[in-house]
Design brief:
single chain; mainly alpha
């Protein structure tokens, strides 16, 4: 039986694969609270829809011990 995290990651992967090409044309601005993490990861300040979904999925599994992660999660909630 698959662990819950494995199922969640599989669902995220299926969602990302099912995105249409037109969804990638529009770029989303990264919230100010996430800029430090974006800089660390070498990401641009705007992301396509698919890139934003991957970043959100990755953010959900990052450690709460990192203050930049906590700030970014709060910024995402406000958005």
């Amino acid at each position: 039986m698959a662990r819950p995290m494995t199922r969640i990651l599989a669902a995220i992967a299926l969602t990302l694969l099912s995105l249409s090409a037109s969804a990638e044309e529009k770029r989303e601005r990264i919230p100010d609270g996430c800029r430090e993490l974006a800089n660390r990861a070498g990401l641009p300040m705007t992301l396509t829809h698919a890139e934003a979904l991957r970043a959100i999925a990755y953010l959900s599994i990052m450690s709460n011990r990192d203050s930049a992660v906590v700030r970014c999660r709060l910024a995402m909630l406000v958005r």
